Amino acid sequence: MADVAYALGMELPFLRGTKGRILRLLRRGTMTADEIADPLDVTPNGVRFHLTELERDGLVEQRSVRRGPRKPSHGYSLTQSGDALFPKSYDALSNAILADVRAERGPGEVEALFRRMGHGLAARHAHRFAALPPDATAGRAGVALEVLEELGAVATLTLGGPSGPSGDAESPGNQHLATVAGLSCPFKAVVPDHPEACRMLEAFLASVLPYATVRESCEKGATPHCRFEVSGGAL
């Protein structure tokens, strides 16, 4: 949303005030209060007042800077949270790269790419599952939800009914079914053009839930939502 507004020349309200102008300047690098004050036509004390509030909000941090032979002075730079306020072009870049892969190698390679990314995600977070037995599906699913939320998917795990073809709990081989559902999609800017993106999280869940079967059933329209059915294992 911020990217779209920025492209249309609509700045976020917060970035239009003095604090926003200070944050814009700090995108260039670490600056002292005096260096910030000059282009803003604000007194250094006025700048320090705003910097104190921005530091309190976790958007800027102090750093020691040296300008020439003088002794070091207090400088200020953006934190990761401060930098995150500004739009990025990652979504457009991702779509462009995926479109090129699709054109050159076909949709199968796009899907394979996302599956590899899902397995890689599982490998990076393997330490978080190390204390849980491979067949502890419920516990491992809880940890998986934490990873999904860190990616931006506000997800829930809902225990449902049996997953057998007849829907009968007494049928041989029927086991409980759980649904991992997201209120949002971390790849919503990519999914409309590249629905194979959902395979990344499917592969991730399948990797970290080795005693379960995971089936992707995401909503892939203009407002995509994650949804994965998990069957088998001790749910």
UniProtKB/TrEMBL annotation:
> SUPFAM superfamilies from the xrefs?
Winged helix' DNA-binding domain
UniProt xrefs under InterPro entries: ArsR-like_HTH, WH-like_DNA-bd_sf, WH_DNA-bd_sf
Q: Where are the transmembrane segments?
A: none
Matching Gene3D superfamilies:
Winged helix-like DNA-binding domain superfamily/Winged helix DNA-binding domain
Q: Pfam families recorded for this chain?
A: HTH_20
Which CDD domains does the annotation name? HTH_ARSR
Domain of life of the organism encoding this protein: Bacteria
Q: What is this protein called?
A: HTH arsR-type domain-containing protein
